[in-house]
Amino acid sequence: MAVTDWKNAPADPGATRAVAANGLEYRVIDTGDAAVFDPYLQAEMRGFLAGEQSDEQLGGARDGLAFRRFVGCTTRTPSTSPNRWAPSIPG
Fold it and tell me: pTM of the predicted model, to two decimals?
């Protein structure tokens, strides 16, 4: 039996298409890449009214949460929604 890499498995194609039909991008967040994960964490923290996190706080959150699978939705244009990540995320 093949072992599924659950953490890095691609986002569900049907969900990706459905979200894209509404002008959004749905994808798996690479928790091993701070340049991708940190902006996502900032948005997640803002969504829970935690405010902007320091580099030290982000490092602790990154270390404590990197084992989990994260998916997210974003637009590629500026938004006023507090629970989104920066439009400049690579990839």
Answer: 0.67
